[in-house]
Amino acid sequence: MIARQETRIGLLTMEAEHGLLLQVILPGSPVIPRGHETIQTESQSSEDRKILEAAFLQIQEYLEGNRKTFSIPFQFYGSSFQEKIWNALLRIPYGETRTYGELASMAENPLAFRAAGGACHQNPLPILIPCHRVVAAKGLGGFGGGLKLKTFLLTLEQKHRL
């Protein structure tokens, strides 16, 4: 099930299936379905609707500075390296940043900093899996939602860190 909602950062699109959040698409990004169709029963649709409503609520609370962690059940699918990187992203504390090199080291592959950046770019759950907390050794680095949004998220977290 796919849902869209306007937020203070623009229109967010999210996808849930079988009671798990699968994708968060930031404003301005193309909607890319995961590539397979499923037939949902009414109970699955209801469960997915509840997950999407909770996800939108928690992201709104985060964007207002009132939430630092998320409690939405989610699932991501990627290569084993991508999944290591995405799990490492979950260990970066709110209000802190790491470089791509540090992220690669966290995923036990310290020389793979460019690949770590690529995995961040492929992150299916931005904001919940905080790839915006990863910066270049000499600068801001990239972000799928654009540098303006990355700066906004980092500033928001610094403001509400304590």
Q: What is the CA-based Rg, rounded?
A: 16 Å
Strand content: 5-15%
Gap between N and C termini, in Å? 36 Å
Structural class: alpha+beta
Q: What order do the helices and strands follow?
A: EEEHHEHHEH
Q: Mean pLDDT, rounded to whole units?
A: 91
Strand order of the largest sheet: 1-2-3
Main sheet properties:
3 strands, antiparallel
Quaternary class: single chain
Give structural notes.
With about 160 residues, the chain is of the alpha+beta class. The chain is about 40% helix and about 15% strand. The chain has 5 helices and 5 strands, in the order E-E-E-H-H-E-H-H-E-H. The protein has helices spanning about 40-65, 80-90, 100-105, 115-120, 145-160, and strands spanning about 1-5, 10-15, 20-25, 100, 135. The strands form 2 sheets. Strands 1-2-3 form a 3-stranded antiparallel beta sheet, with helices on one face. Helix 3 (about 100-105) packs across helix 4.
Provide a concise account of the structure shown:
Helices cover 38% and strands 15% of the residues. It has 162 residues and is an alpha+beta fold.
Architecture blueprint of SSEs:
Blueprint: E1 2-7, E2 10-17, E3 20-25, H1 42-63, H2 80-89, E4 98-99, H3 100-106, H4 113-121, E5 134-135, H5 147-159
Parallel strand pairs: 4-5
Antiparallel strand pairs: 1-2, 2-3
Helix pairs in contact: 3-4
